[in-house]
Amino acid sequence: MSEFAARRKQLLEAMGDGVALFPSAPVALRNHDVGHPYRQDSDLYYLTGLDEPESLLLLTNQHEEHEVVLFVRPKKPEREIWDGPRAGLEGALADFGADVAYPIDELAEKLPGYLGNVDRLHYRIAQNREADATVFDCLNHLRRGGRRGVSAPETIVDSAVHLHEMRLRKGGDEIATMRQAAAITKEAHLRAMQLASPGMHEYEIDAELLHVFRKHGSERPAYESIVGSGPNATILHYRAGNRVFNDGELLLIDAGCEYGYYASDVTRTFPVNGAFSAEQRAIYEIVLQAQKGCIDAVKPRATLEEIHQHAVRSITEGLLDIGLLEGERDALIEEKKYEAFYMHRTSHWLGMDVHDVGRYFVAGEHRPLEPGFVLTVEPGLYIATDAESVDERWRGIGVRIEDDVLVTEAGSDVLSHGIPKEIDEVEAACA
Ligand code: GLY
Ligand code: MN
Ligand code: MN
């Protein structure tokens, strides 16, 4: 609770005068009477720890008595029998740090009282259409109040500007949670390496990953697990499907659990029969050398662009060595010839969201890394099955290696450490 309170205080100070609104994630219906699993909006969770739908946090430094206002579902025993307990107004005050709490049904009625005669509204327009409608109605109502001496906010600021800067810089508790997420993910990848063998289906490994995540207290995968066998490894965001593993194929698993609302995001690629073929090994070595070099390049003041350029150079050299590219290195890089085989970028921010918030550019320049940022390092090589320019023996090979890396004062700390990635370690883990 004190961590959430400290975040609210920091945000209130950073945002200056005004009122900020953070609505809960909408409930999404899957099909008749069945909802998609609910997950709270990361911003609201970051500021409160409240995981209930139909809620909204209002922060204000322009009200005489209240700073933290929560709108929640009131307690209702006849609904709680079906859906489980609610915090209610009592819980909002006692457990979630509210100075005052109201039923969410009173939002439209109460909002003008907090927004009237306030200059700045901090609200992320166009993210949540239902919340937009309530906020816009309130603004419209206030704009009609001029003759009564009531004014609507003149300035609407994206509430994420300050908040996402805060979320980008991970504190000690957050890093500890991310380490735990990565530790669970490590167990899941190890189990997949042990179990996968020719004749199994992709969905069986998907189930094993989920089993390990949930068994260790992870709420859910941080994203749908990618389990791509054989040529499916060359499809970047393939989902686990029905394909059966054939002897001699690679399996690419990009899977990470979410734990305590923090994501991990790890990829490993390994041979289903436990031994890399010569071609698979050659491709794997190129990706591995690039990935390790990129991790070495992570340090304060480096940029994601520099790290990506390292991957591009390293991969281009590797492709030249094995003859998949021909020509002069710098010209090949200049002409982006590597993009036929490496078509995505090397890193993204990681945190509560797998592709986490935080600006990648500041004043038009690639942003320098700072201690407390967490990023992925995930180069790959994907030789399409129909890549006619390359010899047939390379086709259908897909390799990605991805780790989660914390920037530290001294350089970096790999949160997803200890998941086999050297060739002999991988083969031993699969044996
Ligand atoms: N798993 C999604 C990604 O690696 O970005
Ligand atoms: Mn990934
Ligand atoms: Mn990733």
Question: Could you please describe the fold and organization of this structure?
Answer:
There is one protein chain. This protein has helices at 2-15, 42-48, 77-83, 88-95, 107-115, 129-143, 160-168, 172-195, 202-215, 278-296, 304-321, 329-334, 423-430; strands spanning 19-23, 29-31, 34-35, 56-60, 68-72, 100-103, 120-122, 155-157, 220-221, 226-229, 250-255, 257-259, 262-263, 266-271, 361-362, 365-366, 374-377, 380-382, 398-400, 403-407, 412-414. The protein is of the alpha+beta class. The strands form seven sheets. The chain has a six-stranded mixed sheet with strand order 6-5-4-1-7-8, with helices on both faces. A three-stranded antiparallel sheet has the order 9-12-13. Helix 5 (107-115) crosses helix 6, helix 8 runs antiparallel to helix 9 (202-215) and helix 10 (278-296) packs antiparallel against helix 11 (304-321). The model has no long low-confidence stretch (mean pLDDT 97). The structure holds glycine (GLY) and manganese (II) ion (2 copies). One manganese (II) ion binds at residues 254, 265, 267, 402.
Largest sheet, in brief, is:
6 strands, mixed
Total DSSP helices = 13
CATH topology of the largest domain: Creatine Amidinohydrolase
| Total number of distinct structural domains | 2
CATH architecture of the largest domain: Alpha-Beta Complex
Report how far apart the termini are: 46 Å
How would you classify the helix and strand content by structural class? alpha+beta
Bound molecules: glycine, manganese (II) ion
Backbone shape: elongated
Number of strands: 21
The low-confidence parts are none
Question: pLDDT average, as an integer?
Answer: 97
Q: Please state how the strands of the largest beta sheet are arranged side by side.
A: 6-5-4-1-7-8
Tell me the name of the CATH homologous superfamily of the largest domain. Creatinase/methionine aminopeptidase superfamily
Supply Rg.
25 Å
User: Which range does the strand content fall in?
Assistant: 15-25%
CATH class assignment of the largest domain: Alpha Beta
The percentage helix is 25-40%
